[in-house]
Amino acid sequence: MVKSSSLLTTVLIITSLIGFNGAIALAEKPATLVNRATAKSCSPIGRILTSTDRRWQAGTLLCQGDRLYIPPTAQIGVFCFLNRQILPPQSGTILAKCVSQPRTSIRPCSTATRRFCPKTKGPLDLASTPELLSPLGRILLQGRPRLSWRQVKDASSYSVSVYGKGVNFVQTVGDTTLSYPQSQPAMAWGSAYKIEVTALKGDVPFSAAQTTVNMLPESEAREIALAVERIRQLKLPPDEVAYLDLDRLYMNRELLGETIATLAERVKAGSQSSSVLRTLGDRYLEAGLVIEAGEQYKKAIDLAQKAEDAQELSKAQAGWEKVLSYR
C-alpha cells in the first residue's frame, strides 16, 4: 500500500471512533496502511472493487473498525460482506453503509433448540420419500439444473415431472439423477416451477416428494454475473474469493446451490483453508445435508488446529455441535 507523505496531499482519510457517543473524528496524521490481504488481525467487512484513488487499490480488504471518508475528487466501489451489498462507486462516508447484518434463514440450532435445526435430507431422514437433493435451495440461477433425489427402498424407477411457465414434462428413469433434458425449454427468468419425483414399484407409484423453486429475475442474474466477473478480474487468492466474496454475493440472493458448488470446487481442488471447509459445512447444514456438513466441519477443525487459528476453530466447533444435535 502507499503511505501518504503529508496531510495536505492526503486524499483518503482513515478515521476512528472516539468518545462514548460514537462520534467520528478525522485522523490528525496520515495513517500507515497495512496489507489487508495478509493482516491476521483484520476481521474483513468488505472489499474495494473499484477505485479512482491510487492510495486504495481495487482488491483491498476493509477491516472491522475502519472508517473511510472519500472526498468528492475520488470514488470507490465497495462490496460489503456483512450485509452482502455492492455499493456503486461513490464519495463520502462509505463503510457506515456496510454495518447492517444480512437476513438469514438459519436459526440457532443446538441440542437445546432442536426445533430450529434445518430439516435433514439424505440418510438421516428416515421417511421413505424421494426427497430432492439437487438443485439445492429455493432460488435458482441455472435454467437447466441437474436433478437428484434420495433413493427409496423398493423403488424400481422414478417418475420426474417439472412444470411451470413454458415447461411441462415427465420422464421416467431408473437412477436417482436426471440431467435436465436438452429437448425441453429451460426454466424462464423470474418464474416459479414445481419439481415432483415419484417412486415406482413396477408401474405402481407408492411414494412422492415435491418442491417449488424460483428462477432469479434476469436483471438480478445479470448483476450477479457482472459482479462475479469483476471479482475474478481482481485475481485474488481463489480460496479467499470463494468463502469471502462469492459466498456473500450468492447468499445475498439466497443462491444456496451456487455457493455450495463454488466452495465444493475449491475443496475438490485440494484447498487447505479451514475457512473454505467451515463455510461449506455451514451451507450444507442450511441445505439440510447434515452428514456432508459434519464431514466438512471435522476437516475444518483439524486444519484450524494445525494452523492455530482460534477464530476459525471456534466457528468450526460450533458447526460440529449443531451436527451433533441431530443425533
Automatic annotation (TrEMBL):
Name of the molecule in the record: Tetratricopeptide repeat protein
Record organism: Merismopedia glauca CCAP 1448/3
